[in-house]
Recover the amino acids of this structure.
């Protein structure tokens, strides 16, 4: 019985000392699940237990819980990355869950955000009571808001003017959110889109409107949680302008819903998570005006990670510039996630006097937890960007060249062989051809041959001997496909 491609990948193949293990990038990419240990206990226990209980993918519940926790914390709390330049970040997180229809994205979001809605409901009752006690001449107090479903920029500016701590925009459909950006005339739509992009950064901002005049907002910032399907995202991604909107979202790729299993103490864990969100919302900066410092070891670890992150960004820039632009925002993501995790741990302290996140510097353990979480999120982003149709021409060409190399089955392959046997490579621009060959070298498939000669680029490559055994099934299927095509054309020609 022949081994399947998946099974054959597990077979130990002897790799010559001068070669590395060839990476199998021909299969469909899949993102790993987030780990419970990479989240604060109260977030992890609820997100993973609720996913097991409901049958929803834990990726969906984890991202929703992260955004809910960050949105519950006031933007007055900021993690200081560089006191010299004043670089600091609040816990404002944008997340996009991508999963098939029926994966449970909407019900998972509703269940996770329910505690915030309950807090908002209690605040609104108090607001109504205060309004009833006012006379006709008295000005109304600001209306408290925590979560809004959808809003125009005008409406959102009014909400944020009354709620400088920030709000959460929760929209179940990413496509409808994008449609809302373009609901006005063309001349105004682009301006509104820019206003939405500013919401990611927060800070003082004046929203100018012709009919309603200027609206000054002390903190024009909002968290954002939304969802879509892979098919819908592939369609809208082609139409998105290169303004960095999609790149501002943490990405989670979820799978279809499965049968759930009864989880003991599920109700208690839900109550603990709701209590965590209430504590986060009630936290007020008492020390350092809400500025959370880093321990010296934490700062050193963050600086070292930033240097490695720049290398990763530059590497993916050559594959897909959109992915590179997304990775460029990871230092910002890291600070926001770390602050969220830090606040969750601090407000859970037994003594109320110790529950001020600004009182305690960020320890290296919390930063490492956030970086591990972000590393998994990065893998989800890589899968999404490289899997979207038209998202990475270089990566698609690389896969076509790889199949041609397998079909040829020779120990040495020349550039002219690839041009003759791979139409996608032949039709690609020289920059994309070079990028595809560089990727095959990075993936351990090829290396520049000592017997070749150079013009502006290498012309001959040695082929990793391990490919013949590791990808035998794929190579055979590719040869059969090519033979079928040749036979069919030959028959038509007769």
């Amino acid at each position: 019985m022949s081994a399947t491609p998946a099974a054959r990948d597990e077979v130990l193949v002897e790799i010559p000392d001068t070669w590395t293990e060839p990476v199998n990038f021909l299969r469909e990419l899949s993102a790993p699940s987030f780990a419970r240990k990479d989240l604060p206990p109260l977030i992890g226990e609820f997100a993973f237990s609720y996913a097991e209980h409901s049958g929803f993918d834990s990726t969906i519940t984890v991202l929703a819980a992260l955004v809910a926790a960050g949105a519950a914390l006031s933007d007055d709390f900021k993690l200081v990355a560089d006191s010299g330049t004043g670089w600091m970040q609040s816990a404002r997180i944008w997340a996009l869950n991508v999963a098939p229809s029926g994966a449970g994205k909407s019900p998972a979001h509703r269940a996770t955000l329910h505690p915030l809605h309950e807090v908002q409901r209690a605040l609104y009752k108090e607001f109504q009571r205060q309004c009833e006690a006012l006379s006709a001449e008295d000005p109304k107090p600001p209306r408290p808001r925590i979560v809004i479903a959808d809003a125009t920029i005008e409406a959102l500016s009014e909400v944020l003017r009354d709620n400088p701590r920030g709000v959460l925009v929760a929209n179940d459909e990413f496509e409808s959110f994008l449609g809302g950006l373009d609901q006005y005339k063309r001349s105004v739509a682009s301006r509104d889109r820019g206003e939405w992009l500013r919401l990611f950064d927060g800070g003082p901002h004046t929203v100018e409107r012709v009919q309603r005049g200027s609206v000054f907002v002390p903190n024009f910032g909002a968290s954002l949680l939304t969802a879509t399907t892979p098919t819908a995202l592939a369609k809208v991604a082609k139409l998105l302008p290169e303004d960095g909107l999609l790149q501002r979202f943490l990405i989670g790729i979820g799978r279809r819903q499965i049968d759930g299993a009864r989880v003991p103490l599920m109700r208690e864990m839900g109550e603990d998570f709701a209590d965590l969100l209430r504590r986060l919302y009630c936290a007020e900066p008492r020390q350092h005006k809400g500025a959370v410092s880093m321990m010296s070891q934490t700062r050193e670890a963050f600086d070292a990670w930033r240097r490695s992150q720049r290398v990763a960004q530059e590497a993916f820039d050559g594959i897909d510039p959109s992915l590179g632009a997304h990775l460029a925002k990871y230092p910002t993501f890291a600070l926001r996630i770390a602050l969220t995790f830090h606040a969750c741990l601090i407000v859970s302290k037994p003594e109320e006097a110790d529950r001020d996140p600004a009182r305690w510097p960020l320890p290296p353990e919390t930063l490492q937890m956030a970086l591990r979480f972000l590393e998994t999120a990065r893998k989800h982003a890589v899968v999404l960007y490289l899997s979207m149709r038209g998202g990475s021409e270089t990566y698609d060409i690389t896969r076509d060249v790889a199949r041609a190399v397998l079909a040829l089955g020779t120990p040495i392959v020349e550039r002219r062989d690839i041009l003759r046997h791979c139409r996608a490579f032949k039709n690609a621009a020289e920059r994309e051809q070079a990028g595809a060959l560089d990727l095959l070298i990075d993936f351990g498939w090829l290396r520049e041959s000592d017997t070749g000669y150079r013009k502006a680029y290498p012309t001959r490559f040695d082929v990793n001997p391990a490919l013949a055994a590791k990808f035998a099934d794929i190579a055979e299927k590719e040869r059969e496909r090519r033979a079928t095509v040749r036979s069919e054309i030959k028959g038509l020609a007769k």
About this structure: The longest helix spans residues 105-132. The chain has a mean pLDDT of 87. The chain has 19 helices and 13 strands. The chain has two domains: 5-22+392-493, 36-387.
